[in-house]
Design brief:
mainly alpha; 4 helices; elongated
Length: 77
Amino acid sequence: MNQYADPQNPVIFVPTLKATLSEIAKREHRSLSQQVEFFLERCVRLQNLEDNPSEENASSGGQNNRSAVGAMKKRNK
């Protein structure tokens, strides 16, 4: 069995990432699982906005979410 495998969570994180996610989850009053789900949903939503700019106006009521996508990209570089 993999030393990082958790029978309840098949996703394997390097220890430093897991610790960081756990700290964020604690601050946000979420479980680690809820925090990971929250981040994944946000990333997928932003990726979909970037891939389908025509859907952006329909989903945001005409507001521009491009600045949020750009800010996240800059932060992740």
